[in-house]
Specification:
heterodimer; A: alpha/beta; four-stranded parallel sheet; 14 helices; B: alpha/beta; 18 helices; 51% helix
């Protein structure tokens, strides 16, 4: 398959608000269950090991008109909960057996309670990841939380999660992360060969299909993209930060690229690369999942950074590693985590003489001209002054 | 207009004013006295523990409220926004950061000193975490964090409690010993917790007097004063115990004489509507806001905001026998750390127990912890109780988001709706 074919397939899956691909997967065999999860991070391995499909639900995007959802949220609350409610009330998630709401912010946290009240027949859980990163404190707590989640998943799916099954899932997700990080590295090296909008749809589709299928797709895309003859432009190399939860419309990503920016790193669809190292396969799998999260996970706004001197260093290191020349802070409107983090990150990148700009968006933003102008001016200023 | 124009200052009001004033003097004179100071938050505050180390307790939310009531926060918020803070985020945070940029002056006219430690108690509000990361960037002081898990399933588990206790033992206490130079004494903590429980008993008595008709208190506008000592720097002290004794006496007098609450314009005579309120008040226009209620004869008989620093009326008391476990349970049980179905149950219970006419939600523009989900909560409470709900929108301390005409209009319509509902019930009978 060529890149166009792979990207088209992924785009179709990502834009399908009836989740046909996931529905068909479920229908194909008895005992299959689907577990939906909201951004940013849940341990996908546990879901997979129970013969269930983890289904990433990242809002309704710009293709869906929100009618019912607006009745649940005030105008000053971000769009992702209202479009997710819309997905729920319009029956688009009626095949989902369980919903997980991870630790992101107060809105997602409260959405978990709304879901319990609106859909009492669906098992829904708030999934709390630790903010204490000491092995004996946060690690122990998290291991117990994972055990509780494991039991809840077993109960919902009716499938026992054996240690061996979990180890097998860990292997598959280790491979998935390796392939994804590999693609990200390849993009940083030759961004003209790996447009970010293509990578984005591949990642979005990836959280709606079995990991085995995604792994093959990632391999196919990487091979095909390397073969593509795409012209190298005189673009500026930028990192996008702040988009870890409510995702932007695809046109926004395309607009940034069209404005003369090569996006060499981003925080879109963070779940599939939240862990920055392999989860050990040998030993107690729950302990391994817990400790990898505690010791080797990305820095993002929904995590606490225990030391002031470390704040924002992850971003600075990524910028340096990717050879970026600037940062665009792109946060959804009313996004507490991203917007509260922004001044600190902005200070930190300024200390390192890295230029930055910021803007806000919503998953259904339609006006791209101002964003294109802003990103274009930023790209030009990098070219002119840096 | 039912209220007496003569301003009545009761003994408890005078005592509380003096207590707060003394606390601000102690905070702002820390350089002279050599006392160490911790900044921390109201929900899940560990006042007894802080005091165990002879340290002072400074609360940025309370400082923002104080500044809000003195109409200073508008300028502070603009200052923070000029410095790159978004217009979308918590206005307590921006008022605090902006205040720092404008000299950081306490209500007594003296500058707030820098904290020696930031005690980040993560309870029911995500913003707390970022707020203290932002303050840490300013003050460059140690920050110790207690992560309190959210009661997503409506209850806490032993794993959650053990996690908090471990954080207290292994991180908070050693950090405080180091900063204060005072060795931790668990018996001292027990003594303070016994005092906390005494004051908590009396606070609950006060809050529950709103079941009387007429209600002798306003459980929202008045209750923010009643919870002051317990939610701020005085829980675990004899001063707080004494304050509540005096307050009880005053309220008992009002009950005996069938009197209503004391408003800024005197005693409220006529009580036409009994309301339960969900959400924090607006502070920049607090008196104007309150007046919209008592002018219409509306008394608040229960509120969720008065439980934000501890849900004592649901049975929790600090327990001197199990001090650290009890502190953990306290943190876990704060109102916004409880999931939405539990919050609905609490509000439903208030409507029924206090024989209220309905639920009013004051949705706060910049507080997602309270606000996200309130429309659903209101609908659910209406469904369960058959009592009408209403929704108004204001902000904590940003005066740009208080539209007096809009709020008044909505309140008046709401009270008319209650009247109509009553008439409907009567004619149906």
């Amino acid at each position: 398959m060529g890149t166009q074919e792979i990207v088209a397939k992924c785009q179709a899956i990502f834009e399908d608000l009836n989740f046909t691909h996931a529905r068909e997967w479920k229908k194909a065999a008895p005992n299959r269950k689907v577990i939906g999860f909201m951004p940013v991070y849940v341990p996908l391995e546990l879901i997979h090991a129970a013969n269930a499909l983890p289904l990433g639900i990242m809002g309704g995007g710009d293709q869906m008109e929100v009618i019912h959802g607006d009745a649940y949220y005030q105008s000053y609350i971000c769009r992702i909960p209202r479009s997710t409610i819309e997905l729920g009330v319009t029956g688009r998630l009626d095949f989902v057996d369980m919903m997980l709401f991870p630790f992101v912010c107060d809105v997602i946290r409260n959405l978990s309670g709304i879901w319990k009240m609106m859909f009492p027949n669906v098992v829904s859980r708030f999934f709390d990841t630790p903010q204490n990163f000491e092995e004996k404190i946060g690690g122990t707590y998290y291991e117990h939380e994972l055990l509780e989640l494991k039991e809840a998943i077993e109960q919902t799916t009716g499938n026992k999660i054996t240690d061996d099954a979990l180890r097998n899932s860990i292997k598959l997700y280790n491979e998935n992360r390796k392939l994804i990080w590999g693609l990200y590295d390849a993009r940083a090296k030759e961004p003209w060969k790996f447009p970010t909008w293509e990578l984005y749809v591949i990642m979005r589709a990836g959280i709606m299909m079995p990991v085995e299928e995604h792994n093959q797709l990632l391999k196919d895309y990487a091979a095909a993209a390397h073969q593509e003859d795409r012209p190298k432009r005189d673009n500026s190399r930028i990192v996008l930060n702040g988009s870890f939860c409510e995702q932007p419309p695809l046109n926004l990503i395309k607009s940034i690229e069209m404005a003369g920016c090569y996006v060499v790193d981003d925080d879109y669809v963070l779940v599939n690369r939240f862990l920055t190292s392999d989860v050990p396969v040998e030993g107690d799998p729950l302990k391994n999942l817990s400790l990898t999260y505690i010791k080797h996970s990305v820095e993002t706004a929904c995590k606490y950074v225990p030391k002031e001197e470390d704040k924002g260093q992850y971003l600075v290191e990524r910028i340096k590693k990717c050879g970026a020349e600037g940062v665009i802070f792109a946060a959804p409107s009313f996004c507490d985590p991203a917007l509260l983090d922004r001044p600190m990150l902005s200070h930190r990148v300024t200390e390192h003489n890295i230029p930055s700009i910021s803007f806000k968006y919503a998953e259904n933003s339609g006006q791209m001209q101002p964003i294109r102008e802003q990103a274009g001016t930023f790209a030009d200023s990098i070219k002119l002054w840096n | 207009m039912s209220a007496d124009k003569n301003v009545i200052k009761e003994e408890s009001m005078i005592i509380q004013k003096e207590m707060i004033s003394r606390n601000y003097d102690a905070i702002t004179s820390k350089m002279e006295t050599g006392r160490k100071m911790a900044s921390t938050f109201v929900p899940g505050n560990l006042n007894e523990l802080v005091r165990c180390f002879d340290m002072l307790n400074n609360l940025p939310e309370i400082n923002a409220i104080q500044a809000g009531m003195r109409k200073l926060t508008g300028g502070y918020i603009m200052e923070a926004e000029k410095g790159g803070h978004s217009e979308d985020v918590c206005t307590y945070v921006k008022a605090d950061i902006g205040q720092l940029g404008k000299g950081n002056i306490a209500p007594n006219g003296k500058p707030y000193p820098d904290p020696d430690v930031l005690l980040l108690s993560y309870t029911g509000c995500y913003t707390f975490m970022k707020w203290f990361e932002l303050l840490r960037e300013q003050y460059k002081c140690p920050t110790v964090m207690i992560h309190v898990p959210y009661q997503g399933d409506g209850n806490w588990t032993m794993n959650m409690r053990d996690y908090i206790v471990k954080q207290l033992k292994d991180e908070v206490i050693p950090t405080f010993e180091k900063i204060s130079g005072v060795k931790f004494d668990i018996d001292r903590l027990r003594e303070m917790m016994a005092l906390s429980a005494k004051a908590e008993d009396d606070l609950v008595w006060v809050i529950e007097t709103a079941k009387h008709k007429p209600s002798p208190i306003d459980a929202y506008f008045g209750a923010v004063y009643y919870v002051g000592p317990i939610f701020s720097a005085f829980r675990g002290t004899q001063e707080a115990v004494d304050y509540y004794k005096v307050l009880k006496k005053e309220i008992q007098y009002r009950i005996d004489n069938k009197m209503g609450p004391i408003t800024p314009e005197g005693e409220m005579k006529e009580q036409k509507y009994r309301i339960v309120v969900e959400g924090p008040p607006n502070w920049t226009n607090f008196r104007e806001f309150w007046k919209m209620f008592y002018d219409e004869g509306a008394v608040v008989v229960a509120s969720s905001y008065s439980k934000v620093g501890g849900t004592y009326d649901m049975g929790f008391r600090h327990d001197p026998k199990n001090p650290l476990e009890s502190l953990a349970e306290y943190c876990l049980g704060c109102y916004t750390n409880r999931n939405l179905p539990t919050r609905v149950e609490i509000l439903e219970k208030y409507i029924n127990d206090y024989e209220a006419d309905g639920l009013l939600t004051n949705s706060i523009k910049s507080c997602n912890s309270f606000s996200a989900g309130q429309l659903m909560m209101m609908r659910e409470v209406e469904k369960r109780t058959g009592k009408p709900g209403a929704f108004i929108e204001t902000d904590l301390v940003d005066p740009r988001y208080f539209s007096a005409a809009n709020v008044k209009n909505r309140l008046e319509s709401y009270f008319q709706m209650i009247e109509q509902k009553r008439r409907g019930v009567k004619s149906a009978a």
